[in-house]
Q: What sequence folds into this?
């Protein structure tokens, strides 16, 4: 389905001969070297910043952390920001003061596990909600159906960098007096109706993992606009300490180091350019995919502007076939198949819950890999299919099926969208998509 970008931009279809033999079947690959799904690049400025911090002797949380907090809060529309050890710690710092043990928390069925696992770690009861089939974010209408008298909060992901419908979430939360935590681990510099994501909700959490749009190596950050909540988060981050050796409450040691923050400050200076480049690449990919029947580009939530941490493509299983693919190739997709390999720059396809649709998606990815395009599956199963959450899914208010999340697990795959891509590589990605789609067309 074409996105708003694709509808408004000049369409330049990529030309490729449908008769091209797939590299997977012995043909010549589009790209001589693999275009990686992600690229972690540290510049001389990043390295020099880290070295300067090391030479300063201030290795723990210090002035670099404070500077990163101030800059990030200002850029995202928040009043307060607190660096921490990683994005999972950021979630825990946000969850701890906002709901209690036994409280129900509405969560997406389609997200990274940390969004939900930290609810359980806090003692909350996750109530899963299905995904929107267009934006892949949580379906707010499904959330509304799952509110009970025990619901106290919602934890919502801005997945792949695409903002959720914040207006709808805030309206639902206001109606039922729910706390709102936004997981923006993948959404640095995304916006909602022109405002930074930090302007909304009770707390917003971020991750600075190496493959994120900006990195500190490991690291995370929490923002809020509530002074009392800010004080709670600050206490929780460092042993509940109000002054040296005076502890007001039980807390954690979730501080970021000043060395990490130094790298973050250097990276943050480039984040506007990084974001602009990712958006430009996404617009070109939108144009290309608009001319490939059976593939759908990601739909940005109306009112939002994506940061494009990832670029998910959805495959329509009815549009493609394995009929012309040798059985030996299909056998190599089976779980535990001997000789199965993952090209450099790709992430492996996990067996998960294998279906004909997921096998077709996996074949499409393997064919792209052979053409020199790295791919990733985000995610091979919904969190509702994770064994650790079985008792939560199959009991109480959370008991339900999640057909959209299950379908996404079988039909979505991600292609490169990172800022290190050259224009030529973007065109090679497009040529590879066209080549594989033509060869597998039903």
A:
């Amino acid at each position: 389905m074409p996105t708003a970008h694709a509808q408004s931009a000049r369409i330049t279809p990529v030309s490729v001969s449908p008769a091209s033999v797939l590299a997977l079947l012995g043909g010549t690959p589009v790209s001589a070297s693999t275009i990686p799904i992600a690229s972690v690049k540290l510049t001389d400025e990043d390295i020099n910043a880290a070295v300067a911090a090391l030479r300063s002797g201030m290795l723990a949380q210090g002035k670099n952390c404070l500077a990163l907090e101030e800059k990030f809060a200002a850029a995202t529309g928040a009043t307060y920001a607190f660096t921490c050890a990683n994005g999972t710690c950021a979630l825990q710092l946000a969850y701890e003061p906002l709901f209690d043990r036994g409280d129900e928390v509405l969560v997406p069925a389609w997200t990274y596990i940390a969004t939900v696992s930290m609810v359980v770690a806090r003692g909350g009861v996750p109530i899963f909600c299905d995904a929107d089939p267009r934006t892949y974010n949580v379906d707010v209408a499904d959330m509304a159906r799952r509110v009970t008298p025990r619901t106290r909060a919602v934890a919502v992901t801005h997945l792949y960098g695409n903002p959720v419908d914040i207006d709808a979430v805030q309206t639902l939360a206001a109606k039922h007096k729910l706390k709102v935590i936004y997981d923006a681990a993948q959404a640095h510099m995304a916006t909602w109706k022109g405002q930074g994501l930090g302007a909304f909700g009770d707390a917003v959490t971020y991750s600075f993992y190496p493959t994120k749009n900006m990195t500190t190596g490991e690291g995370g950050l929490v923002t809020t606009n509530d002074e009392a909540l800010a004080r709670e988060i600050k206490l929780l981050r460092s042993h509940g300490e109000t002054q040296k050796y005076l502890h007001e409450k039980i807390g954690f040691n979730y501080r970021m180091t000043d060395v990490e923050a130094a790298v973050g400050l250097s990276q943050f200076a480039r984040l506007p350019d990084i974001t602009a480049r990712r958006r430009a690449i996404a617009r070109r990919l939108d144009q290309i995919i608009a001319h490939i029947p059976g593939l759908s580009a990601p739909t940005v939530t109306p009112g939002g502007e994506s940061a494009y941490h990832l670029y998910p493509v959805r495959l329509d299983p009815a549009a493609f076939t394995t009929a012309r693919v040798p059985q030996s190739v299909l056998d190599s997709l089976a779980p535990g198949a001997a000789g199965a390999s993952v090209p450099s720059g790709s992430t492996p396809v996990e067996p998960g819950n294998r279906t004909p649709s997921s096998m077709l998606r996996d074949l499409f990815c393997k064919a792209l890999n052979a053409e020199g395009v790295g791919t990733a599956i985000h995610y091979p199963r919904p969190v509702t299919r994770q064994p650790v959450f079985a008792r939560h899914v199959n009991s109480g208010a959370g008991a339900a099926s999640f057909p959209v999340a299950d379908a996404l697990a079988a039909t979505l795959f991600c292609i490169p969208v990172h800022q290190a891509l050259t224009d030529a590589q973007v065109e090679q990605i497009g040529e590879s998509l066209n080549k594989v789609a033509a060869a597998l067309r039903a």
